[in-house]
Amino acid sequence: MTALPTRKLEAYRYADTEALAEVWTSLAPPHQVGIAAQQKVQQIWLPTGDEIDIRRVEMTVGAGASAQIFALNNAARYGRIELDVTLHDGADFSFDAAMIGGGQSTLEIVTTVRHSEPNATSRQTVRSVLGGKAMGSYLGKVAVARDTQQTDSEQSVKAMLLNRGATANAKPELEIYADDVKCAHGATVGELDTNQLFYAAARGLPPAAAKALLLEGFVGGLWDALGEDSEIAVRARAALREVTR
Amino acid sequence: MLKIENLHATVAGKPIIDGLDLVVPTGEVHAIMGPNGAGKSTLAYVLGGRPGYEVTGGSVSFGGQDLLELEPHERAASGLFLGFQYPVEIPGVSYLQFLRESLNAQRRARGEEDLSGAAFIKLAREKAALLGMDAEMLKRPVNVGFSGGEKKRAEMVQLGIMDPKLAILDETDSGLDIDALRAVGHGINAIMREPGKSVLLITHYQRLLDYVKPDKVHVLSRGKIVRSGGPELAQELEREGYAEVAA
């Protein structure tokens, strides 16, 4: 077992190191996922329900294969999703994740997407809803290796803060060693739109219900491919009701 | 139905409504006309309870209740509908979900049972048909990608679904072509021309009033009603302009 990381390490800059220390020695090594060439894989990562919930995955997506990951991070105290994925020629990778937290919770998503061969696409979409004194952080590195032309990568990170005490961090990072590539990234942090809130109120929705509905719209697009009755969509809605109560 | 006495209101500290008196009896349609900047939209927002629109004096009673004491959602539940001049877009939330949750929130506030999914869909289809709107559009996110005319039709579909006692319609006619104007006018009549219901139409032009005949017309200028009359007043305004009539 390696030493407990400190916040000096970029990947742990916003970590709850106290919570991490409690589980560090019993933490399993990163889960290895290998997706063979031309295979299509979909995974849904639901929270375990534990107060400290850490998921670490190292994934390889073979040539022409596709991986579609959906994730919900809403641990009560410390939730961390750590994903390191390597893409081979023509691989297609998508990651749709929500972080929903209130109280004192610390939530993190730390990804490294390695475009190791040409023609691969990666798309990451992260939506955070943070209330109380919660902190939600996204650190996402996209590394495009030498000569991996026709790389197409996108990171879209948006956070909604429900209270003055909540914090969102977003750090998309690009490391590009090829010239014919497309790497888009965008990050926004905002509050609920007062026009939308008043419109909903004028139609009869009490404030908490209006907030929950608007936030459902903000997060709900992540699960379009799964449908609104999928377990992850249902659990995300329940988590939103919880933070807007 | 609605009784406004000596109302004063400010927006960002600036007085906009300045001693306004207005009575809209049950069963009547009243139109408020006036030039830009007269305070028409401010009046609508004040009655709807929009944050930032501060009442500094006067009173508003709605069906015997003190309207100004109520939160915006409580005003809706007690039977007030505010039609927006600029309907708001809500990405990610379908019209059906938005309206069903809103209607059921109103019903719960009134001590009524929730409407079932099937009953709600039937109601929504019926009201969409009444306004000549494809019910499939209600599956789309609220107002996202709707044209100006479609947004206004959708407002009237909402009016039909909510079935209020009092509709305050703020420039519902702006941005409508002739066909849409006729459909919207017809919709307002079908939904609101019933005993026990009242309408306050806020408009710039007379053209909507060709379809929805008002019982009374009021001219709003600099935050107060400066003239009131029958439907012929609207024609006079159209002919002679606000400067002449409101002077």
Task: Describe the structure in your own words.
- The complex is a heterodimer of chains A (245) and B (247).
- Chain A is α/β, with parallel strands linked by helices and 245 residues long.
- Chain A has one domain.
- Helices cover 18% and strands 45% of the residues of chain A.
- Chain A has four helices and twelve strands, in the order αββββββββββββααα.
- In chain A, α2 crosses α3 (207-220) and α3 (207-220) runs antiparallel to α4 (231-244).
- With 247 residues, chain B is α/β, with parallel strands linked by helices.
- Chain B is built from eight helices and twelve strands.
- Chain B has helices at residues 40-48, 72-77, 95-109, 117-130, 148-162, 178-192, 232-240, 242-246; strands spanning 2-11, 14-24, 29-33, 53-62, 65-66, 80-83, 90-94, 141-142, 166-170, 198-203, 216-221, 224-229.
- Chain B is globular and about 50 Å long.
- At the A-B interface, α2 and α3 of A face α2, β7 and α3 of B.
Distance between the termini of chain A: 41 Å
What structural class do the secondary elements of chain A suggest? alpha/beta
Biggest sheet descriptor of chain A: 6 strands, parallel
How many structural domains can be distinguished in the coordinates of chain A? 1
The beta-strand count of chain B equals: 12
> How many strands, which pairing sense, and closed or not: the largest β-sheet of chain B?
6 strands, mixed
CATH topology (fold) name of chain B: Rossmann fold
Number of helices of chain B: 8
CATH homology superfamily of chain B: P-loop containing nucleotide triphosphate hydrolases
What is the subunit organization of this protein?
Answer: heterodimer
Would you tell me the structural class of the helices and strands of chain B? Answer: alpha/beta
Q: What is the helix content of chain B?
A: 25-40%
| Count of DSSP H/I helices of chain A | 4
Strand order of the largest sheet of chain A: 1-3-5-7-9-11
**What is the succession of H and E elements of chain A?**
HEEEEEEEEEEEEHHH
Q: Report Rg of chain B.
A: 18 Å
Mean pLDDT across the residues of chain A is 95
The interface involving the most residues is between:
A-B, 23 and 31 residues
| Beta fraction of chain A | 35-45%
The outline of chain B comes out as globular
